[in-house]
Amino acid sequence: MSFLVLVAALLLSRHRAGEGAAALFARWRQVVGSLPAEGWRLPLLLFAGPAAVGAAGLACAVLGAPWLYWLLALGVLVTCLADPELHRRADAFLDDLRRRDLQAAWHEVQALGAGCAADWRELHAASLAQIAHRHLRARFCPFFWFALLGAPGALFYRLAAEAGEARPQDGRLAALVTFLEWLPVRLFGASLALVGNFGPVVAELRAAGWAKSTDAAVLAGRLVRAALSGSRAVDPGPEGEIAELEALPALLDRATLSWLALVALGVLAS
Length: 270
Prior knowledge:
Layout: H1 2-14, H2 19-34, H3 41-62, H4 66-80, H5 84-98, H6 102-111, H7 120-149, H8 151-166, H9 171-195, H10 198-208, H11 216-229, H12 238-269
């Protein structure tokens, strides 16, 4: 049943804008950002939502209505998969590149969380890293934690990730998000290796190794670039940027489908 919920949530998230979920997460970031640096409020809020979903699941089991929990789980997962800003910004970024408007293109990448870039090559790396990382946060990580811990796990991850964006200077929160993303980003790389350039992606995974301090955004960007271009030199100008960005959505869709196929095989094997 969990696999069916994963598939249904993916289909629903692709055919709805997710504006309501985006507004909820925006409000969550405001609440988290207003909390004091120290204290018990943030940990309590992080655990409150997932604990409530878990309690609802137990109540449904006791009442003999598991279907009600699966409906709740579907709603939670669809919410966790929502990131309409990513698609808007990525499309706008690609349009800016086609017009050769570097300033507007950089504005779109900054809105996704990138830092500074001095030339086309740095802009190219930053854009791929941010788009890949946002896709990781809105697809692979919620999928992974849902498959492992159910709806409470997916919700806890997404709340922690959004809180990390709201409080970038919070070391403990950053460490928590790094821990939650450590394995999913490597599974993301394994999926990219299956549907992209296998050798270069595996080389990036080996280079990252088991290091706990590897930044998920940087690693996701490297994995995507390896899957798209492999060992070939990337054109640092707008033509190379446009070509790879046009190929990126199909690559990410194939990686998602390969991950679902692996989950399906695991379900059948069990």
